[in-house]
Amino acid sequence: MSKILVTGGCGYIGSHTIVELQQAGFEVVSIDDNSCSEPWVMDRVQNITGISCTNHPINLCDMPALRAFFAAHTDISGVIHFAAFKSVGESSTNPLKYFYNNLLGQINLMQCVQDFKIPHLVFSSSCTVYGNPEQLPVTEESPMQEPESPYGRTKVIGEAMLRDLVKVAPVQVIALRYFNPVGAHPTNEIGEYILGVPSYLLPYITQTAIGKREKLTVFGGDYPTRDGTCIRDYIHVCDIARAHVNAIQYLQRGAAQAAFEVFNLGSGLGQTVLEMIASFEKVTGLKLNYQVGDRRAGDVVAVYANNRKAREVLGWELQFDLDAMMATSWAWEQRLARE
Ligand code: WQD
Domain for residue 132, yes or no? Predict the structure, then answer.
């Protein structure tokens, strides 16, 4: 059984990816310092799959600990790297925290991948590398633009470092550019665990609906879009997770066309903020308390994916539609309120 290391395995996309990897027959081990996640997530993963996954609470910036881990796990055939801070807003007020954690952590991981001759690495990247795209939908060849935040910059630099690494190390890399991951696992065992006030739209919607937040503010109603609010490409976290299995399988069967490849992970659809609110109200039967307020600095007007390459090259198939995104998000919020 092929053993995969998932860094950030207790996190939102990491935990959903471990479920899909285990159900696809992979042995999985996790590294997560739980600075932004909870250790009990691994118990929930086992509730879903019946398979345990050990998490090693190591910070990737602790190189001696990371090196010792790899020395003790010489049978790792691939790494999926999620572990990074991801708050756009926090990164803008504290860029050095993000550069240190996200970039030094990745540099240490790349050093171990090179030294321990790990053949395959999948990197968690983001649509934020496209900035405010001139042409839509964006393809993998769309120009990368000034990212909206230091968080986005760590993704641009992260990809660039990997493009250089594959020139000297015997590793094949896939960068997966996520659009807007939302939703929770259909079993309602795992979902997005928000620390503090949510900055992302859907968690704010569900926390408003459950009564944790008084009102949702729509950031801007005067954009040049069909209803004046921003357009994004929302994609279910389980679809995102399954794409990582497709990527590892693609690498392991030797199908890679180059040492570094990029794939967009989006639904290919664009929804406005008001359309997301309407969809949530339709699925739940609830009336959401919201107001349209000022624009949020750094927001791009519209971005959504051309996902053809991932579908055709990786064999990626989307299974969750917008209603499922809303229904699973709401079910998860209701579970959190009961706990
Ligand atoms: C979505 C839309 C807001 C909250 C982020 C990361 C990006 C990627 C995807 C990882 C925007 C509006 C939001 C609210 C609102 N992450 N909004 N009221 O900024 O598109 O992208 O997630 O790969 O890197 O930046 O996501 O959910 O914050 O915003 O009106 O209370 O919802 O203005 O138009 P974003 P978001």
Answer: yes
DSSP letter assigned to residue 36: S
Contact (CB, 8 A) for 148 and 131: yes
Q: Of the listed 98, 130, 151, 204, which one is catalytic? A: 151
> What spacing in Å lies between the alpha carbon of 50 and ligand 1's midpoint?
34
Angle at the Cα of 109 (from 103 to 113), degrees rounded to 5? 140
Decide: 200 in ligand 1 pocket, CB within 6 A: yes
What is the rounded average pLDDT of the residues 128-156?
A: 94
- Residue 135 falls within a domain, yes or no? yes
Share of the chain above pLDDT 90, in %: 95
Token code pair at residue 263: 């794939």
Q: How far apart, in Å, are the Cα atoms of 210 and each of 186, 200, 287, 337?
A: 19, 16, 11, 8
Give the pLDDT band (50/70/90) at residue 147.
confident
| Residue 298 located in a structural domain | no
Q: What number of other Cβ atoms are within 10 A of residue 284's Cβ?
A: 19
Q: CB under 8 Å to 331, separation ≥6 — which residues? A: 184, 188
Q: Which atom of ligand 1 is nearest to the CA of 203?
A: 27
Element (H, E) at 28: strand 27-31
CATH number at residue 99: 3.40.50.720
Residue 22 tokens, joined: 């285990």
pLDDT, residue 89, reads 86
- Burial class of residue 72 in the structure, from the number of CB atoms within 10 Å of its CB (0-12 exposed, 13-18 middle, 19+ buried): exposed
- Is the residue at 327 inside a domain? no
What is the bridge-based pairing of β-strands 271-272 and 231-232?
antiparallel
pLDDT at 1 over 80: no
- Domain holding 33, by residue range, is 3-186+235-266+305-318
Looking at the structure of the chain, the number of domains it has is 1
Active site residue 304: no
Assigned token pair, 224: 């040049």
